[in-house]
């Protein structure tokens, strides 16, 4: 996977939530159905790789971009 969309826009030390969450959604939304399916480990694996490649603080996206009921994306029911 190409994590550049996130790593190029979400930069520390302040990690602006608006930019970080926008980049995260652009990356993750094509996979929203799989990421919101708690019967697999897609979300856990994705966050592990995002943190590995971006060296982000633990929980950055989970805490800053949290939405009730899972990832909400444009055009998603």
Automatic annotation (TrEMBL):
A Pfam family found in this protein is LLG1
Query: What is this protein called in UniProt?
Result: GPI-anchored protein LLG1-like domain-containing protein
Q: What InterPro entries does the entry give? A: LLG1-like, LORELEI-like
The opening ranks of the lineage are:
Eukaryota, Viridiplantae, Streptophyta, Embryophyta, Tracheophyta
Spell out the PANTHER family in the cross-references. GPI-ANCHORED PROTEIN, GPI-ANCHORED PROTEIN LLG1-RELATED-RELATED
> Ranges for the GPI-anchored protein LLG1-like domain?
1-68
What is the superkingdom listed in this entry's lineage? Eukaryota
């Amino acid at each position: 996977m190409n994590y550049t969309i996130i790593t190029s826009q979400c930069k520390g030390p302040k990690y602006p939530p608006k930019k970080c969450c926008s980049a995260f959604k652009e990356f993750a939304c094509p996979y929203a159905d799989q990421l919101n399916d708690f019967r697999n480990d897609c979300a856990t694996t994705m966050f592990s790789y995002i943190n590995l490649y971006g060296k982000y603080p633990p929980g950055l996206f989970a805490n800053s971009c949290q939405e009730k009921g899972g990832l909400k994306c444009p055009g998603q029911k």
